Input
Amino acid sequence: MANLTAFLLLLVVFAPVWATDIWFYDDDDYDKHKTFKRFNFGTAQRCYNIADCFNNKASSASWINAPKEAWLTFYDDEECRGTQYASRSTPSGEMKFAPVGLGNKISSFMQWEYSTFPLKGFVDICNDAAILAVNATANTTNASNATDNSTMDATISFY
Output
């Protein structure tokens, strides 16, 4: 049993992890990138907010290692709302936001693989420890307050 546990642990540690690297730039001239933010993420269908560290500053973006069948989608509002533009250029690509009306307006992005909705929640990627609420009704449970007999709905998500 100990050998099996050790083997499984090694398998988990050394298994390849696929994650997309994305860079946001404050200039759309790819030779003059003055300011940029680099993010690494590995979960599709999760909305990544950049409002706390690069809000409305991105003129262009480039990425590598995205899944071949994925779409990278950029939004002008937090929580993947508002005007959006989806790029089908994967596993690597780049785009300028001004030609699609989103120059210096990007506040969030998401990697689509099987849906256009953030089914795996919202993350402030500037502070990746802050996982925001997930709107998943399948994981909703009721909790009652013993002091006033009121009922509270809570959404519980499993990652």
